[in-house]
Structures are given as structure tokens and as C-alpha cells.
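// run 5 | inverse folding | seed 20
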């Protein structure tokens, strides 16, 4: 039991840990743990204070931390307090220079504050009225995986994605990224393991390939 490698997974913005349902690492020496988002104490709760609260859920020393998208930013901040042996990012960024111009624009202009976060909680209402099969499928996936609809959380999270700043990379970081990521385009990403055809949702759509990569990294 004491010799096991403990891996903690942090989902993307507003997502539940269900996004990891296809992650399968069949190794008796590995134990997987899945973190979920906390509701911020206030819209002004600092990112540092928030990650300290999340770190309470880490029960093992020197774990591996895996974060998807905004969850990747979060696990980098958590690394200051839990001292992981590795930090693995999926569909995320390692520092401010990897942000696309549109996010840097939002950071400068603060236009993101106009985002109607409370509408996300109502998106399931559109599922029954969509006659386009492709759109209906996307809405069904949205309802399945995006579980946090709290407006305070959403406003807090968007603010912290836009304003997250890290100048240098962690020493123990490994980055897995999709060639077709539409949120964090690959052209801005340096030193990553590239999954061809992988979009920002590849934790779901390319899970088999990600499993293979994770097995090699952990071995």
C-alpha cells in the first residue's frame, strides 16, 4: 500500500471528474484520485487561498498531479504546497506566454466581466429544442460533464483563467496537448507531447491515446 503511486486528477473549468471516466491505468501500484471544484468563498477569493483549500483533499505525499485546461493551471499552483513528483498538464498552458491573443485581450480590457455566467446553468433547456443532431449531441455532452453551474464559481473561474500569470515553467512538468486545440492553439505551446487531431475535449475523445502516454510517463 505504501509503495503505490498516487495520482490526483483536476478537471477543467466547471467540469466534473466524470471527464476522466475513460482514463484507465491498469497497474496495481497506481491509485487514482479525482478532485472536484469547490465553490469559492467569495468572488474575491484569491487563487492562492483557493488552492490551499483544495490541497486539503491531497492525502498522500509526493503525488502526481494531473490537470486539464484551467485544472492544469490549478495543479501548478497546488504544487507549491503538496510537492508533487510530477505535474502533468492536458489541454492547458504552462505560463503566460502560451495564452492566445484573445485571452490577453480580455486580460487587458476586462471584457470578460460582461460574460453572463448565470446563463450556463440554463443551457440544458436548449437540449430538447435542438433538432440538429450534432448540436444536440454537444449539448448532451455539456450536460453530462459540466457540472458546476454556480454563477459565483463561474465568474471567479473566468476571472482567474484570464488573469492567471506564471512567468516560468515548473521543473517537473509534462505537457500533453492536442494539435487542434481551439482554446489554447498549439502554435503558442512549447515543449509538449502532441496528440494529432486532439481538440480541447481530447480527455474524452482521445482517452485511449492519453492512457498510453500516461502509462509511459508514470513508468
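// decoded
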Amino acid at each position: 500500500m505504501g509503495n503505490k503511486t498516487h495520482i490526483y486528477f483536476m478537471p477543467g473549468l466547471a467540469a466534473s471528474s466524470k471527464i476522466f471516466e475513460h482514463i484507465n491505468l491498469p497497474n496495481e501500484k497506481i491509485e487514482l484520485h479525482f478532485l472536484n471544484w469547490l465553490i469559492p468563498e467569495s468572488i474575491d477569493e484569491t487563487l492562492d487561498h483557493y488552492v490551499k483549500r483544495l490541497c486539503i483533499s491531497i492525502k498522500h505525499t509526493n503525488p502526481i498531479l494531473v490537470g486539464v485546461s484551467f485544472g492544469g493551471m490549478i495543479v501548478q499552483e497546488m504544487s507549491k504546497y503538496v510537492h508533487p513528483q510530477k505535474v502533468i498538464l492536458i489541454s492547458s498552458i504552462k505560463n503566460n506566454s502560451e495564452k492566445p491573443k484573445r485571452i490577453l485581450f480580455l486580460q487587458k480590457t476586462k471584457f470578460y466581466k460582461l460574460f453572463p455566467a448565470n446563463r450556463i446553468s440554463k443551457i440544458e433547456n436548449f437540449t430538447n429544442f435542438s433538432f440538429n443532431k450534432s448540436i444536440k449531441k454537444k449539448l448532451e455532452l455539456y450536460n453530462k460533464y459540466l457540472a458546476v453551474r454556480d454563477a459565483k464559481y463561474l465568474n471567479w473561474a473566468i476571472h482567474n483563467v484570464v488573469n492567471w500569470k506564471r512567468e516560468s515553467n515548473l521543473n517537473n512538468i509534462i505537457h500533453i496537448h492536442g494539435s487542434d486545440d481551439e482554446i489554447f492553439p498549439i502554435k503558442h505551446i512549447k515543449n509538449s507531447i502532441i496528440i494529432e487531431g486532439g481538440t480541447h475535449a481530447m480527455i474524452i475523445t482521445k482517452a485511449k491515446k492519453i492512457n498510453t502516454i500516461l502509462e509511459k510517463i508514470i513508468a
